[in-house]
Write a structure and sequence with these properties.
single chain; alpha/beta; Severin; 2 domains; 5-stranded mixed beta sheet; 4 helices
Length: 226
Amino acid sequence: MQVYHVVKKELKELKSPYTFLDGDVYVVETDNILWVWIGKRSYADDKAVGAWAAKVIEEKNKKLEIKTIMQGDEPPEFLDIIEFEVKRGDTPGFLKHIDIKVKKDFRLLHIEQNEKGEVITKEIPIEYKLFESDDAFVLDFYDEIYIWIGKDCQVKEKYEAGKIARQLEVERKRIPIVYVIEEGDEPEGFRDMITKMAWRDAALELRNDDKKEDSSKKKKWWQFWK
């Protein structure tokens, strides 16, 4: 049996005696089951990384069955294989330590259902003020995908958002971390992340405008012969 503590985007192996923090997520790997233990005070980013970690391990061993359990609802089968103590606390989640890389091609997809019942997906600027309660949004950060669900979002919109996330995973032939975030339950750091991305887009746009202006001022070789 191997026991892992999910810290940001890493799995840190633990040794006995085991202590679980109620704000974190842990993965327990046995011969045939992969248990994902979720503390009652864990954030959405912790849960998403836990699910991602389980899928990464499962890719190496397809025989493993993934079972997700919540603190306080552990089945006897789980309690029979491991003894652990639960303490109050948590470690910084992924969203609390954002490292934005300008070169990445990030984007925000807006998913809405029109009056005819058709679901329309379009790319929009990355700005938190554009998020609407009656729609769904997908933030594509390549290795991380964020699905934001508005409180008045329609079922078709939710389904389409999940479908887009699955398509991106297949296209890239890798396992991105997929965060599902509901309006009003955003984890700490989420809004700051969107703000940083808006600054990034503004900086890139300004840089591209400067390049165009510089290019227009340069004389072409044929202009000297006019």
